[in-house]
Specification:
mainly alpha, 38% helix, 0% strand
């Protein structure tokens, strides 16, 4: 849909992204599948109008659900290699925003 008709149906993208959010909330296997399919990266490209298809024609497309899906999936990943402390010489603190459902990171 994003590659072909996403730009034409910008008014309905909220429902499209809500479907992904509901799917991701089903559990860890679903989140793993979405991460392996590189959904967060693709969704962020859509949000920046650089997605797999033409830019969204609807000027005020609501992308809140898109950001919710990306947030949910990223919080299940190990992001420690990207972290650094603001205090020089001090190791970074653990991520307080990690998803409590994911006891172990799904992807490195």
């Amino acid at each position: 849909l994003l590659k072909k008709e996403g730009s034409e149906h910008g008014r309905h993208l909220t429902q499209y992204f809500h479907l992904f959010l509901m799917y991701a909330n089903l559990g860890l296997p679903e989140r793993t599948q979405l991460l392996k399919l590189n959904v967060p990266a693709m969704f962020m490209l859509v949000a920046l109008d650089e997605g797999p298809g033409p830019p969204i024609k609807y000027q005020y497309a609501e992308l809140g659900k898109l950001y919710s899906v990306v947030s949910l999936l990223v919080r299940c990943c190990d992001v420690s290699k990207y972290m650094q402390s603001s205090i020089s010489g001090t190791p970074p603190l653990t991520n307080p925003h990690g998803d409590p459902v994911c006891q172990q990171p799904i992807m490195p």
